[in-house]
Design a protein that fits this description.
Four copies of one chain form a homotetramer. With 385 residues, the first copy, chain A, is of the alpha/beta class. Chain A has helices at residues 26-35, 51-60, 70-79, 93-105, 120-132, 147-157, 186-191, 194-197, 202-218, 311-314, 327-346, 358-376, and strands at 13-19, 40-46, 65-66, 86-90, 109-112, 137-139, 164-172, 222-230, 241-248, 253-259, 268-275, 278-283, 289-294, 299-303, 382-383.
Amino acid sequence: MTIGPSTPVHRRLRAGIVGGGRGSFIGSIHRIAAEMDGRARVVAGAMSSVPEVARESAEAWFLERSYASFEAMARSEGGRDDGIDFVILAIPNCLHYPVAKAFLSAGIHVMCDKPLAVTLAQAEELARDVESGSLLFGVTYTYVGYPAVREARTLVQAGTLGELRRVNVEYFQDWLMEPIERTGNKQAAWRTDPAQAGPSCCVGDIGTHAENLLSFITGRSIRSLSADLSTFVPGRQLDDDANILLRLDGGAKGTLMCSQIACGEANRLSIRLYGSKAGLEWHQQEPNTLLVKPAGEPWQYRQTGQRYMSEAARAVTRTPAGHPEGYLEAFANIYRGFTEDVVRVTCGLEPVHDYPGVEDGVRGLQFVERVLASAGAGGTWVELP
Amino acid sequence: MTIGPSTPVHRRLRAGIVGGGRGSFIGSIHRIAAEMDGRARVVAGAMSSVPEVARESAEAWFLERSYASFEAMARSEGGRDDGIDFVILAIPNCLHYPVAKAFLSAGIHVMCDKPLAVTLAQAEELARDVESGSLLFGVTYTYVGYPAVREARTLVQAGTLGELRRVNVEYFQDWLMEPIERTGNKQAAWRTDPAQAGPSCCVGDIGTHAENLLSFITGRSIRSLSADLSTFVPGRQLDDDANILLRLDGGAKGTLMCSQIACGEANRLSIRLYGSKAGLEWHQQEPNTLLVKPAGEPWQYRQTGQRYMSEAARAVTRTPAGHPEGYLEAFANIYRGFTEDVVRVTCGLEPVHDYPGVEDGVRGLQFVERVLASAGAGGTWVELP
Amino acid sequence: MTIGPSTPVHRRLRAGIVGGGRGSFIGSIHRIAAEMDGRARVVAGAMSSVPEVARESAEAWFLERSYASFEAMARSEGGRDDGIDFVILAIPNCLHYPVAKAFLSAGIHVMCDKPLAVTLAQAEELARDVESGSLLFGVTYTYVGYPAVREARTLVQAGTLGELRRVNVEYFQDWLMEPIERTGNKQAAWRTDPAQAGPSCCVGDIGTHAENLLSFITGRSIRSLSADLSTFVPGRQLDDDANILLRLDGGAKGTLMCSQIACGEANRLSIRLYGSKAGLEWHQQEPNTLLVKPAGEPWQYRQTGQRYMSEAARAVTRTPAGHPEGYLEAFANIYRGFTEDVVRVTCGLEPVHDYPGVEDGVRGLQFVERVLASAGAGGTWVELP
Amino acid sequence: MTIGPSTPVHRRLRAGIVGGGRGSFIGSIHRIAAEMDGRARVVAGAMSSVPEVARESAEAWFLERSYASFEAMARSEGGRDDGIDFVILAIPNCLHYPVAKAFLSAGIHVMCDKPLAVTLAQAEELARDVESGSLLFGVTYTYVGYPAVREARTLVQAGTLGELRRVNVEYFQDWLMEPIERTGNKQAAWRTDPAQAGPSCCVGDIGTHAENLLSFITGRSIRSLSADLSTFVPGRQLDDDANILLRLDGGAKGTLMCSQIACGEANRLSIRLYGSKAGLEWHQQEPNTLLVKPAGEPWQYRQTGQRYMSEAARAVTRTPAGHPEGYLEAFANIYRGFTEDVVRVTCGLEPVHDYPGVEDGVRGLQFVERVLASAGAGGTWVELP
């Protein structure tokens, strides 16, 4: 007995990937995340600009179609009846803009790594393209995929925190504490190279994650900021550390800190919110717990998978409480929202946009630009749009 | 350009599943785990004994072939050129034996849920079948798939702990603290029914996980035990709680505790080992950390993904340090070892058996049987084979 | 201006100490604890059987009166108008009985270290003496002095846990993991010597603390037990490790574990209780937090010093929340209850006995005796009185 | 037998207290801390400006001498042969200056609460008085009394961290999140009143603790800062929250945050340091652990009381590892250093100044002044002297 007609709801979606070839960390992360729920399969790719690497990487993934360039891929897939439904961009920042343009032009939905582009102008142009067309565009701000982060947002929306007063978000790593860009580490090489990464390393790479997490949970934008940017590793061209004072719409104040030279920290992203009725605390490295601190009452330890969690949190949970969900599941939740939208629009339905989109990408670039402006002016307070 | 000839190394493995239909928790867990690394796809299934459920479940998973019975599936798949390479058993304990027999007879490798069978006799017969044949047989003792557990085993093997003295392993849940088997919970219904689960609920379902974790890390077997078994929920036929004293080969002593009525505990599996040179501690609910406690020195906090971790731990890690890996990744690691062996034997190579096998399944049943024997005799110390 | 007449409420109590001289760990602990609230001062002592040590130790403490023997001290202090109100026994187990007898005979209240005596018979005789007289007798089961432990007891008494089902109490140390009794450690020497410590080392020294903590919080007695006792350090005469199965009055079951060879553990005393409505968890090494786990709700993190804590907990708290209270404050809380009773009885009021007394001491010895009996009989279940 | 001649080494020191009467939190904290090691006794006091409260408070403490005013006390005690050796100031900030002056003039050593004074000018004058005289002056920056903080300083001094790059210190409370100064809370009333507290509430009260902790551990001064000060509770005259960017001597950068409106936080003081070789982390609410994070190695969990701790940490530890030491013991360690110096100078020896002194007090006021200057100028970077 054989199953499965060909309308999108009755078949798996077909995905393609640009980048992610041998030696890439993020490529297989994208593949696992995109395929986890069985709603999509990566079937085509232009996985490297080095032809042999592209071919071997595609073989290792059992891809059906391998291309030598993203242009060839966009052209070919856009014209096939069984072409890909969406493309994944797992490439250095400087390529986001041209590659996204190519696939949008070919009529293919795009899931793009963050930051959205190298310059704000590029990001804004992509946003105009997306807004004026009918294609979907996702940006993989992974960390908002965690169930506990969804719970946090739900609690804020429900007014549990009261008036928001203080926010503290931070993202500390140590992988760039030595000049490994000069000793063969490819990841480090492009991220510390202005030509490939754009005008910021640390703020662009992880500060934007922190900004997005803050914005996602609180629903508030940064109104103004004052930044102190540093480069601690001698000879490095871009920043590797930042301390930023924040003022949010609505009156809350706080800090955003990010560092890639914080010795001993692997990937310490955390957020604390303090309101007039309750506080909240979440740590990405123990992602299944959300601390809630109601005024005058014991702290609550809310755990992913428990029945008391909100519908929004439970909707992105795959296992019962006590079976830890991790980074890959959070990443897959971004893809889950995106692929559900792809199915919706293919069926003529309205998308619901339950994942970070091009507007988040633009806001990220605005943030980076203003941080650089403030730091360049000796820490002057700078307004955001 | 098209890729991919048909020898196993050059194609994805094909998997089938028995059970796991709509309403099953463990079915999609198996699928995600089996497919995560892109080395296998579930293509066929007999997902329910209710025909409509079987069909709809298969459609939801986009399976190529759906069967109304496991017998039909075994027969058909065993005879196809493009038949499945291995089958996944995601069914109540009482079905493990007949279904495993059917697929082994059809020449198909088997990955079976734990416990291996309802009786020790069944388990031993399966073991004889496997040992006398050339087919692979895995048992999904998931928790030994965690990188930190591999690290723990490596440290023990390297002698870091010195002479092992005390062991404490425990597995606490609370999901059976009310008689939910009488209010429509299917998972609870079969697990508390002797006809479907066998002679034990708590010890069979989770005590065996604890036993396996202990055995995996220490490399030691339980030599004798004294058990106190309880049923706290009135009207329940099987045990829901146990306290067991242990003596291991080589002289260590300790405890194994398991409970499904431990109010507030979701899935608290943990192990502590104390040797003459160091101690070890690991908690499944924070799986990316392994505490090592060398005599007279500060505790070490070993984290999954760090470069100082052993080769054995790094081999089953997919993300950099600080990107939490969870239960699904641990489960996928069991499948990774298994599918690599399937490829090996298909290519005529020797398997390496880096996953729990039929002998672990037999030992689990021996453990359950001896626990019941001891408890039945008022806690008498009972020897294991 | 001078303050202070001479009735006990208007003056500080006068305490004496036997033992605690130079080299003793517990002596100064007793002094700090007894004096912390300013209600008592140690003014006299027989601090060592070595005259020079006794004299120098008394000088170092600025004692008003130093004695060469406890007999001389009891006689002299019992006869003075400004004699001590109570005596502190900070001496090896084997001396508790004769010294306590001497001071009781001299009409002086007694605060005794645990275990109460070397044999159950001695303990019972002391209990008879106390019960037939009018003197107060405290036993320093320190750990029940913590505010969070008082909170735990209050919650149990209020029925928060529902029907108690499972209890797990454990006390792990590692200070005896090497044979330090043979290399000059005085503390280790007497504790591992049957002549001075009695028939048990580990169970007598720390198992009794665990038993007391369990009994204090739950209000339940151990009805029967099955014990596995070990001596891991070669050449040692007494036990250094024990695993004990418990059944409590009222139906709960569980374990009590204690060890002095648990490598890496300093003083890991913890208790977990699981009832039909909620669970509880407390760890002595993070004593200001009590975890409460109501069925189906988030865990609560109850913190010492918060206003939501019970009256019983707040009554023994000296600092606001977030100012950690430790072992010395817990110890001082035992003395606070005791000295308040000394003042009461001196004023002709009834004592309230809000501290461990001679009956706790007797129960501790019963526990030790039954553990030894069970272990000696191969783990047979043994009833307690 | 009677003990004890009258030279200071052979007698207890005599202390007096100004303030700390009924209703004061900090009064009994000072008494317990000053007396804990048995080297000093509080014997005299001017405990309240309300005569009846002063008298009753002195009786409750069994003081030998009670005074109606600090002036009378300074005069009288300065003239007695058995007068107090030192005085404790447990009074609102605005009284520190006049009371300290009075006792210094009377030839009596002073232990003063922080901040040292209301204005920098007052603080500098006190510093000149102390430097030009021969009297000792301590300031109770309590938190540097913890053994783990001493360990942290020792590790920094030993070069364990390498070149210091990033520092983050924070102190969060929530006790002022409602306007309790208007509903009868005396502590809140004076701290939020410029006339009694000086020009800052939050920064003066707890920001100075954070500054002192940072300076103590790193041995580095703040070179410049940029501050954002807030008052979140409507109607309050002084700040209740601050976010401050820091640059330290030697090149490290970072943040100092303090808040008294951080809902759910009791007394969350913590510090993190990141150097080129290792990181450090310490949390006051779990004070017995120091996390050390050497580059490329597992984190170390250093525990107070362990033999591997430095001499500096062990010198201020009273109990074995695993017996938690808390806030009172930290406070007592400040007094221990101070009273040892009192004995030294009384015997004609040089003091060693192992406790915060008047220079720490001055630096605290400089810090407060510069924070106010920066915040008043819209966050301009301001240099420190």
